[in-house]
Amino acid sequence: MGPSLARVLAQDFLPLKSRCVKGLAEWILSSPCRRNIVVLTGAGASTSAGIPDFRSPGTGLYDNLQKYDLPTPQSIFSLDYFRKAPEAFYELARDLWPGLQGYKPTLTHRFISLLDKKGRLLRCFTQNIDGLERLAGLPSERLVAAHGSFDTATCIRTGRRVPAEELRQAVLVGKEGPQGWQALREKYGGLVKPDIVFFGEDLPAAFFTHRRQDFSKCQLLVVIGTSLSVYPFASLPHEAPGSCLKVLINREDVLDFSFDVSLLGDCDEHVQELVSHLGWQEEMSELGGAD
Ligand code: OAD
Fold this sequence. Notes:
By secondary structure, the chain is of the alpha/beta class. The chain folds into 2 domains: about 15-50 and about 105-145 and about 205-290, TPP-binding domain (Rossmann fold), CATH 3.40.50; about 50-100 and about 150-195, SIR2/SIRT2 'Small Domain' (2-Layer Sandwich). It is built from 11 helices and 9 strands. The chain has helices spanning about 5-10, 15-30, 80-85, 85-95, 105-115, 130-135, 165-175, 180-190, 205-215, 265-280, 280-285, and strands spanning about 35-40, 120-125, 145, 150-155, 160, 190-195, 220-225, 245-250, 260-265. The strands form 2 sheets. Strands 3-2-1-7-8-9 form a 6-stranded parallel sheet, with helices on both faces. The protein has a 3-stranded antiparallel sheet with strand order 5-4-6. β4 and β5 (about 160) form a beta hairpin. The chain starts with a helix and ends in a 5-residue tail after the last helix.
């Protein structure tokens, strides 16, 4: 058995935050954690890469969509609105499409990748569609892209698969012209959408399969950079067994779930401290992630 939760939380002579991070490091290094760590991520894991999250007041995406004149900010990811007015999503897709803006993985992404290389990570479930986990070297079999990805695309009227590269080119060109998205719509008999999950759409089958398979084995759950406000993803922490240590690393507390350890603040900063307690600085540097 690894150190008990009481010991994790009650190491004297250290400030509360360091005490928690040190205890967490000790816990990770202990044997029960072998391939038993599940990480859940949200947009906060990518903000230091320059990608805004959704709901932070002022800076979040949903506070900055005025130019699209949407009925509600969430309409940008609604199938009904996309059918009526696809321009808005297609324009935004130029900013969101992985690789187009040159966003780089953050320290947090590299840490998740390192957890895998160290043989500790069972799975990372991400809500993010920026592709930065894989760019940080996390193999696709360790990742559940719960809200889909830009890797594949589908015509929403016929259900026909469309090469994602064809859609990417059309998004770059815009509405008009033989390579634009209007021409693509005519070619495939309906609007073409990347397979990212819009509100009201089903999550990929892998989400449900891994939710069923992984959580019974999970001994450490680390939730990073999410407000946990979108279901069914937000239900995942409830799947973890009672014996599992549940840790939140986020700028703000998440009210709907009671974590054993809450490390509030910037996730990269907490991760950096964790890496130093783990003694993994060299490997992180090799991944290009820590000084
Ligand atoms: P949110 O914007 O709802 O939450 C991001 C959380 O990360 C907030 O609690 C922030 O305070 C926190 N945060 C931001 N930057 C941080 C940092 N550097 N360090 C630590 N914490 C930080 O984003 P998500 O929870 O990912 O779904 O949103 C979930 C879903 O809502 C998205 O996948 C998207 C959206 O609608 C769909 O579009 C289907």
